[in-house]
Automatic annotation (TrEMBL):
Keyword flag Iron: no
Any single Pfam family the record assigns to this protein: Amidohydro_2
Annotated region described as Disordered, given as residue ranges: 1-29
Name by which UniProt lists this protein: Amidohydrolase
Classification via Gene3D superfamilies: Metal-dependent hydrolases
GO BP, one annotated term: secondary metabolic process
Gene Ontology cellular-component terms listed: cytoplasm
Organism encoding this protein: Streptomyces populi
Biased composition (Basic and acidic residues): 12-21
InterPro entries listed in its UniProt record: ACMSD, Amidohydro-rel, Metal_Hydrolase
Basic residues: compositionally biased ranges: 1-11
Length: 360
């Protein structure tokens, strides 16, 4: 893919001959943001008026609380152009110094309450609409589809359909009603994802702690990191990553609380036979088999994530364009004051390889 030439600290400069300067040699790898969302009005139209939608919205309202909903609605409306218009998205990317986005549907589109027939319509519509959005700038936008976790028998078909649309893989939540990611029913899905090399983006929506988090936006600030930690722990302790060691799973929000508290998991694995029954190695070792975005909002936490997972397992992420993301993902990465090689890997080097981006 054609990338604007950047200095090693990520500042854009025109393509063409360059000289080494005080900032160091220029590099040509693109800056890649793996955590960016698209809003799909087609999905909302599909579900409008269906039985179950009212109850799902009521559950979401109960989990978030009225104060959060009163702010979230206008926040999303203000960002509709960036969420739906490729030209507005590209302009924002240019302002951020981002060359490539991995675009995933807003998690509000999961709708794991839908029946099999509706779920199939939904994932097909979402996959096709996301692919169409990305086709406006195929050298700069890569996409992810959806897979209906509430119907495990459909997940392989959903993944295959996403890949047929030219998407890189699918986005999933941390669980489905009555099912954790450790559920044996998902084994064919993990097998197919490994076989195809598809990317699985793990991004929670909602938190089962419900009304305990319905004030002060705790549903997001505490709920999202909790859901990430629980979901990843199910993948690790159940042996999913032993059985499918080449899975390409990217965990949003830096993997939540798990990477910075992985020592407790290791202790349980070594001290208790029930904790060690499902996985072959200490839990911390599996962090080096997963990928994590860099969106942790604290340079020291980012450095700890890199220490535990490895600099080759952390990818730039912004949660574009929502308010819980960052408007300057490269600046947030730079604030961690990383070694140059680590900075470059996270800025885009690792993601370029993971997504098979090519330069021209």
């Amino acid at each position: 893919m054609a990338a604007r030439r950047r200095t090693r600290r990520g500042r854009a400069r025109p393509d063409g001959p360059h000289d080494d300067d005080a900032q160091g040699a220029a590099v040509t790898s693109p800056t890649v943001d793996v955590h960016a969302h698209v809003l799909l009005p087609e999905v909302d139209s599909l579900l409008d008026g269906l039985p179950g939608l009212t109850a799902a919205r009521a559950l979401d309202a109960r989990r978030n609380g009225p104060a959060a909903l009163a702010i979230s609605g206008p926040m999303v409306r203000d960002r509709i152009p960036q969420l739906t218009d490729p030209a507005a998205r590209l302009a924002a990317m240019d302002a951020q110094g981002v060359d490539v986005q991995l675009v995933s549907p807003s998690p509000s589109h999961y709708h794991y309450w839908t029946d099999e027939e509706t779920a199939e319509k939904l994932y097909r519509l979402a996959n096709e609409a996301t692919a169409k959005h990305c086709s406006a700038a195929p050298h700069r936008l890569r996409g992810l589809g959806l897979a209906p976790l509430q119907h495990p028998d459909h997940t392989v078909r959903a993944l295959d359909h996403a890949l047929e649309q030219g998407l890189a893989g699918v986005e999933i939540s941390s669980h489905a009603p009555g099912r954790e990611l450790s559920d044996p029913a998902y084994e064919p899905f993990w097998s197919r994802a490994q076989e195809t090399g598809a990317v699985i983006f793990l991004h929670p929506f909602g938190c089962t702690l419900d009304e305990r988090l319905d004030q002060w936006y705790l549903s997001n600030t505490v709920g999202q990191p909790t859901e990430n930690a629980v979901a990843l722990s199910h993948l690790i302790f159940s042996g999913v990553l032993d059985r499918h060691p080449e899975l390409k799973v990217i965990a949003a929000h830096g993997g939540g609380y798990l990477p910075t508290h992985i020592g407790r998991s290791d202790h349980a694995w070594s001290a208790r036979p029930d904790a060690a029954a499902g996985c072959a190695h200490p839990p911390s070792s599996y962090l080096k088999r997963l990928y994590f975005d860099s969106l942790v909002h604290d340079p020291s936490v980012l450095r700890e994530l890199i220490r535990t997972a490895g600099p080759d397992r952390v990818l730039l992420g912004s949660d574009f364009p929502f308010d819980m993301g960052t408007k300057d993902p490269v600046g947030a990465l730079r604030a961690a004051r990383l070694p140059e090689a680590d900075f470059e890997a996270i800025r885009g080097g690792t993601a370029s390889a993971l997504l098979n981006l090519t330069q021209s």
